[in-house]
């Protein structure tokens, strides 16, 4: 059942993104920013945690999950360090994920032969 709920929640997030791309003139980059911002706002109010409880990885892996991680990191750092934590907390909270993405992207570029689109 965990896999089904993750699939449904992640699928809903993807469907929303696809609908936005098909029905509006928003670019994928702007939709990315909207998703991260919505995740950060919902995370700041503690609402995104409820979505993660239902959807698990289906909610924590997509872009709103990244925004949620940024918000959580910033809130935690503000509580510990004061105002300066608002600037450093998001970076600290998401550093492991960003590092993993860069490392595995580089690793795949070494294993496979990357080409530019033509």
Automatic annotation (TrEMBL):
InterPro entries: Spore_V_AE, SpoVA. It holds the Pfam family SpoVAC_SpoVAEB. Keywords: Membrane, Transmembrane, Transmembrane helix. The chain crosses the membrane at residues 6-24, 31-48, 91-112. It comes from the Bacteria. PANTHER family: STAGE V SPORULATION PROTEIN AC-RELATED, STAGE V SPORULATION PROTEIN AEB. This is Stage V sporulation protein AE. It comes from Clostridium gallinarum. The lineage of its organism: Bacteria, Bacillati, Bacillota, Clostridia, Eubacteriales. The gene is spoVAE.
